[in-house]
Design brief:
The chain has 5 helices and 14 strands. By secondary structure, it is an alpha+beta fold. Helix 3 runs antiparallel to helix 4. It starts with a strand and ends in a 6-residue tail after the last strand.
Length: 359
């Protein structure tokens, strides 16, 4: 995703030689001209890789046991889905309840403020990078099968009935196996001159056998499909239905009882201390309300599972479950070139460098 960087001025207040930041909650229609930024909520992108297998019975399936001793060959086609993997990745979305404005006024210090395209704050006085999302796996198509008739002899093609065609095809398969065995043992009438030619001949025989055998065994077309689910948690949960999955239909609607429920749980790890009422701290913080707001996120344990299997789990700092704190406006006056970068996925401070040098 592209990151846009804005050059803007932080407002100067008439407090002697000190030029201070003025950051206030954004109020549509009431906030003066300025650069508006958001703190993020932490959203989750879940990538589901599902495998689809489609079985098509062979034309001579009913003769498989009689001629090739292939037992339990199904004469009915079917489709079978399975979940190969589920991966989670956090990313940030603007929190409309945490919108703030950096006011633009005359005689500004003019720091760099980096924002994502969605307006989430990334950096001040330096370049920031948006937290990258991993690439989504590519889907794969089913393997193209061989055409058995390309490997049939003239005798097989001219057979008068299905039963006779199956019998002659089975005989051809046995002849191919005999030829391969003779080559491997070095007993063939026309032995290849070198190992490379031997490998080529063996590969050709295997291809012929595979093409003809699928007339009895049938074919299985295997492909993978990728589904993405994006959600922004707003409350904790022990067992929320994320989606339903059917072995016959794949991903289905949440109200479709044909699918087995896949659950999501969100558990507060309680890594942050509980807020305490402290008059001195509150008074000090009230003087910083014109500073830069940032998130102190809470760590949330996320688990994706079904009744019989756990697919993935992880712990992620989530801005919406944490607290909002303020960086003092003193850090951004004329006497300082404080550089700050933020995590775009949760709004916490990634790095803070206070050079203390004049601009």
């Amino acid at each position: 995703m592209k990151v846009r960087t804005l050059l803007c001025g932080l407002a100067i207040c008439s407090l002697g030689a000190s030029a201070q930041t003025e950051v206030n909650p954004y109020v549509p229609g009431a906030t003066v001209e300025g650069v508006t930024y958001y703190l993020p909520r932490t959203a989750l992108r879940l990538t589901v890789v599902a495998e689809k297998q489609v079985y098509t019975p062979g034309e001579f399936g009913k003769y498989a046991d009689r001629y090739l001793r292939l037992a339990n060959v199904s004469l009915e086609g079917y489709t079978h889905w399975s979940i190969k993997s589920i991966e989670m990745a956090p990313y940030g979305v603007p929190d409309p309840q945490k919108a703030y404005s950096i006011q633009l006024k005359k005689r500004t210090v003019a720091p760099l403020v980096g924002l994502t395209p969605d307006g989430i704050i990334l950096s001040i006085n330096t370049e920031g990078q948006e937290d990258p999302l991993p690439a989504i796996p590519k889907e794969s198509d089913a393997h193209k099968h061989l055409n058995p008739r390309d490997y049939m002899t003239q005798e097989i093609l001219s057979a008068g009935s299905s039963a006779k065609t199956a019998e002659l095809t089975a005989e051809e398969i046995y002849d191919i196996r005999d030829s391969r065995t003779s080559l491997i043992k070095g007993e063939a009438d026309n032995m290849p001159k070198d190992g490379e030619q031997l490998k080529l001949m063996l590969d050709q025989l295997s291809t012929q056998e595979e093409a003809l055998t699928q007339l009895f065994k049938g074919t299985v077309d295997t492909s993978t499909e990728v589904f993405t689910i994006e959600l922004t948690p707003t409350e904790l949960t022990d067992r929320m239905i994320l989606f339903r999955f059917s072995e016959k239909l794949g991903v289905v609607d949440n109200d479709d009882l044909a699918g087995e429920p896949i659950y999501l749980s969100l558990k507060d790890m309680k890594t942050l201390p509980q807020p305490v009422e402290d008059e001195k701290a509150a008074k000090k913080k009230s003087k910083m309300e014109e500073g830069v707001y940032y998130n102190v996120p809470e760590r949330i344990a996320v688990d994706v599972f079904s009744a019989s299997k756990e697919f993935c789990k992880g712990e992620y700092p989530m801005g919406q479950f944490g607290q909002v704190e303020v960086l003092s406006d003193v850090l951004f006056d004329k006497k300082n070139t404080t550089q700050v970068t933020f995590y775009s996925s949760n709004g916490s401070i990634k790095q803070l460098t206070d050079t203390g040098e004049e601009k």
